[in-house]
Amino acid sequence: MTDISRLPGALDQHWDWQQRAACRGQDAALFFHPAGERGQAHDDRDTAAKRVCVRCPVRSACLAHALTVREPYGVWGGLTEDERAALLRRNRRRGRVA
Questions:
Q1: What is the pTM of this model?
Q2: Nearest to 81, CA basis, from 39, 32, 45
Q3: Which of 37, 82, 73, 75 is nearest to 54 (CA)?
Q4: What are the residue boundaries of the 4Fe-4S Wbl-type domain, all occurrences included (predicted)?
Q5: Can you spell out the DSSP letters for 42-54?
């Protein structure tokens, strides 16, 4: 579950980036795997989601949000939940806070 205590609040300027996201209007199922999805289907869906992220003008804001709130699911800012967890671990080892 997402820790909402890390969310920046209700002010529009904290969320405006979402209006410009390349994923806006896309089927959320592309970015969040269904329960039990494994193997090639999982990899193909992640790859397709990341293709959307590559062309996104707010990719860095999206990734920063996901790292800040420790978003536990889905592709955010071009990284899967496992990739974000690995990045957070590396940052912790290096003494950085994300």
A1: 0.80
A2: 32
A3: 75
A4: 22-86
A5: HHHHHHHHHHHHH
Q: Return d(Cα 40, Cα 85) in angstroms, integer.
A: 21
What pairs with residue 79 in β-bridges? 76
For residue 28, say whether it is annotated as part of any ligand binding site.
no
In terms of C-beta distances under 8 Å and separation of at least 24 residues, what long-range contacts does 53-60 make, across chains too? 53/22, 53/23, 53/77, 53/78, 54/78, 55/22, 56/21, 56/22, 56/23, 57/20, 57/21, 57/22, 58/17, 58/18, 58/20, 58/21, 58/22
pLDDT confidence of residue 16:
87
- Cα–Cα nearest to 2, from 78, 61, 64, 73: 73
SS3 24: coil
Q: Could you tell me which residues come within 8 angstroms of residue 60 by beta carbon, excluding any fewer than 6 positions away?
A: 77
Instruction: Please check if 23 is assigned to a binding site.
Output: yes
Q: Which two tokens stand for residue 10?
A: 């209700």
